Amino acid sequence: MNTGTPVMAERRWTIGFLVAVIVVMMVQNYLLVKKAERYLEHVNVLRAENASLTLLNTGDSTRAFVALSLDSSSVLIDPTDHTKTLLFVFTSRCKFCHENMKNWNALAEELKFTQVVVFGITTDSLFTIKRYREATLIGFPTFSVVGDSQLVVDYKLRSFPQTILLDSLGVVINVWSGVLGSRMMENIRTAI
After folding, report:
1. In total, how many domains does the chain have?
2. Mutual orientation of helices 95-110 and 182-191 as an angle, nearest 10°?
3. What is the domain range of residue 27?
4. pTM of this structure
5. How large is the average pLDDT for residues 11-32?
6. Per-residue pLDDT tens over the stretch 155-167
7. CB-count exposure of residue 161 (10 Å: 0-12, 13-18, 19+)
Protein backbone atom coordinates (compact mmCIF):
# COMPACT_ATOMS: atom_id res chain seq x y z
CA MET A 1 0.00 0.00 0.00
CA ASN A 2 2.89 2.38 0.64
CA THR A 3 4.45 1.78 -2.81
CA GLY A 4 3.38 5.29 -3.99
CA THR A 5 5.15 7.13 -1.19
CA PRO A 6 8.74 6.82 -2.52
CA VAL A 7 7.48 7.85 -5.96
CA MET A 8 5.67 10.84 -4.47
CA ALA A 9 8.75 11.77 -2.47
CA GLU A 10 10.87 11.53 -5.60
CA ARG A 11 8.42 13.74 -7.51
CA ARG A 12 8.44 16.29 -4.67
CA TRP A 13 12.21 16.27 -4.69
CA THR A 14 12.28 16.66 -8.50
CA ILE A 15 9.75 19.51 -8.39
CA GLY A 16 11.67 21.19 -5.56
CA PHE A 17 14.91 20.82 -7.51
CA LEU A 18 13.34 22.28 -10.67
CA VAL A 19 11.90 25.20 -8.69
CA ALA A 20 15.34 25.86 -7.19
CA VAL A 21 16.93 25.74 -10.64
CA ILE A 22 14.31 28.15 -12.00
CA VAL A 23 14.87 30.55 -9.08
CA VAL A 24 18.64 30.42 -9.59
CA MET A 25 18.18 31.07 -13.32
CA MET A 26 15.85 34.01 -12.59
CA VAL A 27 18.39 35.53 -10.20
CA GLN A 28 21.19 35.03 -12.74
CA ASN A 29 19.05 36.59 -15.46
CA TYR A 30 18.25 39.57 -13.22
CA LEU A 31 21.95 40.03 -12.42
CA LEU A 32 22.88 39.80 -16.13
CA VAL A 33 20.25 42.40 -17.02
CA LYS A 34 21.56 44.78 -14.34
CA LYS A 35 25.13 44.21 -15.53
CA ALA A 36 24.08 44.87 -19.14
CA GLU A 37 22.37 48.11 -18.05
CA ARG A 38 25.58 49.25 -16.32
CA TYR A 39 27.62 48.41 -19.43
CA LEU A 40 25.14 50.30 -21.61
CA GLU A 41 25.39 53.35 -19.34
CA HIS A 42 29.18 53.12 -19.55
CA VAL A 43 29.06 52.81 -23.35
CA ASN A 44 26.80 55.87 -23.56
CA VAL A 45 29.21 57.87 -21.39
CA LEU A 46 32.13 56.78 -23.57
CA ARG A 47 30.16 57.59 -26.72
CA ALA A 48 29.44 61.10 -25.43
CA GLU A 49 33.09 61.59 -24.46
CA ASN A 50 34.20 60.32 -27.87
CA ALA A 51 31.77 62.63 -29.68
CA SER A 52 33.15 65.63 -27.80
CA LEU A 53 36.63 64.61 -28.91
CA THR A 54 35.75 63.93 -32.55
CA LEU A 55 33.08 66.55 -33.26
CA LEU A 56 32.69 70.23 -32.58
CA ASN A 57 30.09 70.96 -29.94
CA THR A 58 27.34 73.54 -29.87
CA GLY A 59 28.86 76.75 -28.56
CA ASP A 60 32.43 75.99 -29.66
CA SER A 61 34.22 78.91 -31.32
CA THR A 62 35.89 78.52 -34.68
CA ARG A 63 38.46 80.61 -36.45
CA ALA A 64 39.11 81.81 -39.97
CA PHE A 65 41.41 79.62 -42.04
CA VAL A 66 43.11 79.42 -45.39
CA ALA A 67 42.14 76.59 -47.72
CA LEU A 68 42.96 75.61 -51.27
CA SER A 69 40.35 76.06 -53.95
CA LEU A 70 40.15 73.57 -56.79
CA ASP A 71 42.18 75.92 -59.00
CA SER A 72 45.01 75.75 -56.39
CA SER A 73 44.60 79.30 -55.14
CA SER A 74 44.58 80.08 -51.44
CA VAL A 75 41.25 81.30 -50.10
CA LEU A 76 40.56 82.87 -46.71
CA ILE A 77 37.45 81.32 -45.21
CA ASP A 78 36.11 83.46 -42.39
CA PRO A 79 32.75 82.45 -40.89
CA THR A 80 32.41 85.92 -39.33
CA ASP A 81 32.03 87.42 -42.82
CA HIS A 82 28.58 85.83 -43.20
CA THR A 83 25.26 85.67 -41.36
CA LYS A 84 25.56 81.88 -41.16
CA THR A 85 27.94 79.34 -42.64
CA LEU A 86 27.06 75.74 -43.45
CA LEU A 87 30.04 73.44 -43.84
CA PHE A 88 29.94 69.99 -45.39
CA VAL A 89 32.96 68.03 -44.13
CA PHE A 90 33.82 65.00 -46.24
CA THR A 91 36.48 62.87 -47.83
CA SER A 92 36.41 60.92 -51.07
CA ARG A 93 37.15 57.67 -49.20
CA CYS A 94 33.97 57.93 -47.11
CA LYS A 95 30.99 55.90 -48.34
CA PHE A 96 28.60 57.83 -46.09
CA CYS A 97 29.90 61.14 -47.45
CA HIS A 98 29.03 59.93 -50.93
CA GLU A 99 25.52 59.08 -49.68
CA ASN A 100 25.18 62.63 -48.29
CA MET A 101 26.00 64.36 -51.60
CA LYS A 102 22.40 64.33 -52.80
CA ASN A 103 21.14 65.95 -49.57
CA TRP A 104 24.07 68.36 -49.40
CA ASN A 105 23.49 69.41 -53.01
CA ALA A 106 19.79 69.96 -52.23
CA LEU A 107 20.65 72.14 -49.22
CA ALA A 108 23.19 74.12 -51.26
CA GLU A 109 20.57 74.72 -53.96
CA GLU A 110 17.92 75.77 -51.41
CA LEU A 111 20.32 78.22 -49.77
CA LYS A 112 21.78 79.64 -52.98
CA PHE A 113 20.01 83.00 -52.72
CA THR A 114 20.03 83.37 -48.95
CA GLN A 115 22.39 84.91 -46.41
CA VAL A 116 23.79 81.44 -45.61
CA VAL A 117 27.12 80.58 -47.21
CA VAL A 118 27.54 76.90 -48.07
CA PHE A 119 30.75 75.08 -48.91
CA GLY A 120 32.52 71.78 -48.52
CA ILE A 121 35.75 71.10 -46.69
CA THR A 122 37.84 68.04 -47.39
CA THR A 123 41.13 66.71 -46.14
CA ASP A 124 41.76 65.19 -49.57
CA SER A 125 44.50 66.47 -51.84
CA LEU A 126 43.49 68.70 -54.74
CA PHE A 127 44.27 65.90 -57.19
CA THR A 128 42.02 63.48 -55.30
CA ILE A 129 39.15 65.91 -54.88
CA LYS A 130 39.28 66.90 -58.56
CA ARG A 131 39.04 63.22 -59.55
CA TYR A 132 36.24 62.69 -57.05
CA ARG A 133 34.39 65.73 -58.38
CA GLU A 134 34.56 64.29 -61.92
CA ALA A 135 32.89 61.08 -60.70
CA THR A 136 30.47 62.66 -58.22
CA LEU A 137 28.21 65.66 -58.63
CA ILE A 138 29.28 68.24 -56.06
CA GLY A 139 26.99 71.26 -56.31
CA PHE A 140 28.75 73.53 -53.85
CA PRO A 141 32.16 75.20 -53.60
CA THR A 142 34.73 72.81 -52.17
CA PHE A 143 38.05 73.56 -50.50
CA SER A 144 40.92 71.36 -49.42
CA VAL A 145 42.68 71.72 -46.07
CA VAL A 146 45.08 68.87 -46.77
CA GLY A 147 48.18 70.57 -45.37
CA ASP A 148 46.70 72.26 -42.30
CA SER A 149 47.02 69.77 -39.46
CA GLN A 150 46.16 72.42 -36.86
CA LEU A 151 42.88 73.16 -38.62
CA VAL A 152 42.10 69.43 -38.65
CA VAL A 153 42.56 69.47 -34.86
CA ASP A 154 40.72 72.78 -34.27
CA TYR A 155 37.71 71.88 -36.42
CA LYS A 156 37.86 68.17 -35.45
CA LEU A 157 37.99 67.10 -39.08
CA ARG A 158 38.67 63.43 -38.41
CA SER A 159 35.09 62.22 -38.39
CA PHE A 160 33.18 62.06 -41.66
CA PRO A 161 30.64 63.10 -42.79
CA GLN A 162 29.78 66.18 -40.77
CA THR A 163 27.41 69.05 -41.43
CA ILE A 164 28.36 72.08 -39.33
CA LEU A 165 26.30 75.25 -38.94
CA LEU A 166 28.14 78.38 -37.70
CA ASP A 167 26.72 81.75 -36.75
CA SER A 168 28.09 85.18 -37.71
CA LEU A 169 30.60 85.06 -34.85
CA GLY A 170 31.98 81.68 -35.94
CA VAL A 171 30.26 79.92 -33.04
CA VAL A 172 28.90 76.43 -33.67
CA ILE A 173 25.11 76.41 -33.75
CA ASN A 174 24.89 72.67 -34.38
CA VAL A 175 26.74 69.67 -35.81
CA TRP A 176 25.11 66.74 -37.57
CA SER A 177 27.27 63.70 -38.14
CA GLY A 178 26.62 60.69 -40.31
CA VAL A 179 24.21 60.19 -43.17
CA LEU A 180 21.54 62.87 -43.25
CA GLY A 181 18.07 61.37 -43.02
CA SER A 182 14.83 63.28 -43.46
CA ARG A 183 14.64 64.17 -39.76
CA MET A 184 18.21 65.57 -39.77
CA MET A 185 17.48 67.50 -42.96
CA GLU A 186 14.44 69.05 -41.31
CA ASN A 187 16.53 69.89 -38.21
CA ILE A 188 19.11 71.63 -40.42
CA ARG A 189 16.42 73.63 -42.24
CA THR A 190 14.90 74.66 -38.91
CA ALA A 191 18.30 75.69 -37.48
CA ILE A 192 19.06 77.82 -40.52
Report:
1. 2
2. 40
3. 1-54
4. 0.71
5. 89
6. 888 889 999 999 9
7. buried
Domain match, 45 and 123 both: no
DSSP lists the bridge partners of residue 171 as 61
Query: How long is the chain?
Result: 192
Do 163 and 118 fall into the same domain? yes
- Is 117 part of a structural domain of the chain? yes
The answer to whether the Cα torsion of 48, 124, 112, 84 is positive or negative is positive
In this model, does residue 51 exceed pLDDT 80? no
Encode pLDDT of 129-146 as tens digits: 999 988 888 989 999 998
DSSP code of residue 80: G
Same domain, 4 and 69: no
How far separated are the first and last CA of the chain, in Å rounded?
90
DSSP string, 85-97: EEEEEE-TT-HHH
Count Cβ atoms below 10 Å from residue 80 Cβ, excluding itself.
14
Regarding whether 141 and 46 lie in a shared domain, the answer is no
Please tell me the distance from the alpha carbon of residue 70 to that of residue 157, in angstroms, as a whole number.
Answer: 19
Quickly list H helices, the chain: 4-54, 95-110, 126-135, 149-154, 182-191
Q: What is the largest CA-CA distance in the chain?
A: 106
CA nearest to 146, candidates 119, 163, 122 = 122
Helix (H, G, I), strand (E, B) or coil at 120: strand
- Which of 17, 34, 54 is at the close of a domain? 54
